[in-house]
Amino acid sequence: MEFLSSRVLIRPADRERSLAFYRDALGLATFREFPGGTVFFLGGGFLEVSGEGAGGSAGVALWLQVRDLAATVEELRGRGAPIDREPRLEPWGLREAWTSDPDGTRIHLVQVPADHPMRRDTR
């Protein structure tokens, strides 16, 4: 299995407060903004602050980009990992499936289609 990229997703209790912290207090540069969320550069990966949740670890998920979502899901099934949600095309244009770790942390497995803006815009 090959992972190409990663992103930590945070669903804070107060999104505006968290955005101010990551943007202003930590000085993270913005990678991308979309309705309801902001993605920051975070070293070799990214941090996404979007939606609203309970905050803390209950609001954290992992975003792992893979080359072939269907093959990855089948490989995970073969290893006994749960598939919490089957692959589907999301409204924002990415193909996603979900699994989770033993503690329930959601892991988003993501394939970026060739025509998605993340592939066309190379800034």
Task: Summarize this structure briefly.
The protein has helices at 15-25, 69-78, 117-120; strands at residues 3-10, 30-34, 37-42, 45-50, 60-66, 85-89, 95-100, 106-111.
Q: Please tally the β strands and state the result.
A: 8
**Helix-strand string:** EHEEEEHEEEH
Helix content: 10-25%
Gyration radius from CA atoms, angstroms: 15 Å
Shape: globular
Provide mean pLDDT, rounded: 87
Q: Determine the N-to-C terminus distance.
A: 27 Å
Largest sheet: 8 strands, mixed
Structural class estimated from helices and strands? alpha+beta
Q: Uncertain spans, ≥5 residues at pLDDT below 50?
A: none
Q: Figure out the total of helices.
A: 3
* Order of the strands making up the biggest sheet: 2-3-4-1-5-8-7-6
Strand content: 35-45%
Would you mind describing this structure in some detail?
There is one protein chain. With 123 residues, the chain is of the alpha+beta class. The protein has helices at 15-25, 69-78, 117-120; strands spanning 3-10, 30-34, 37-42, 45-50, 60-66, 85-89, 95-100, 106-111. It has an 8-stranded mixed beta sheet. The longest helix has 11 residues, at 15-25. The protein is globular. The two termini are 27 Å apart. The mean pLDDT is 87.
Which keywords apply here?
123 residues; alpha+beta; eight-stranded mixed beta sheet
What is the fold's blueprint, element by element?
Blueprint (H helix, E strand, L loop, with lengths): L2 E8 L4 H11 L4 E5 L2 E6 L2 E6 L9 E7 L2 H10 L6 E5 L5 E6 L5 E6 L5 H4 L3
Parallel strand pairs: 1-4, 5-8
Antiparallel strand pairs: 1-5, 2-3, 3-4, 6-7, 7-8
